[in-house]
Amino acid sequence: QQQVKQSPQSLIVQKGGISIINCAYENTAFDYFPWYQQFPGKGPALLIAIRPDVSEKKEGRFTISFNKSAKQFSLHIMDSQPGDSATYFCAASSSGSARQLTFGSGTQLTVLP
Amino acid sequence: KAGVTQTPRYLIKTRGQQVTLSCSPISGHRSVSWYQQTPGQGLQFLFEYFSETQRNKGNFPGRFSGRQFSNSRSEMNVSTLELGDSALYLCASSSQGTPSTGELFFGEGSRLTVL
Predict the structure, then answer these.
(1) CB of A98 within 8 A of CB of A29?
(2) Minimal CA separation from A106 to chain B, in Å
């Protein structure tokens, strides 16, 4: 029940295209859903996060869509750039143990120039 | 402001040995969490410390332990190393005092290879 399932495992997108990564969770106690971006040799960095009281959150080219009833959330990267090429992780946690993130398995995004 | 600093960045050990990894959080951050990252299991939570107390613990054997000092610096120790302990060990700090908000700032990790 703690699992967060992420897809696809890898994604190749042309420059300017839209990248979409999906995640699904089982634990209904989860109430914080961040996305992290990781470049080779670096630690993950917070990209954007959402709580279940809203269905969408946008920050620049990055948007999280959240469907509470389906227990799914997704990351959309608009106008994808080669600099966005990285591994993306969705995660989830619950109040009271917010630093205990349960991570998805990661998506390796490649944006072709 | 300096980021999360982890030392050493790389180390090689043999089976049966023990290892201690160090983490200095961002100045002012009192919460330190540790994660293990492997190709097979992904990112997995080890434990979290706040004000020198372990607040949460993941599903790892007792060979994995940690502690936090009064200056918020943290160490984690793995005893009786196994081949499967080869991983990138990530430390993350957070400024939030309450457990209910979650932005983590990760260091670049300590890459442990067990031969």
Answers:
(1) no
(2) 8
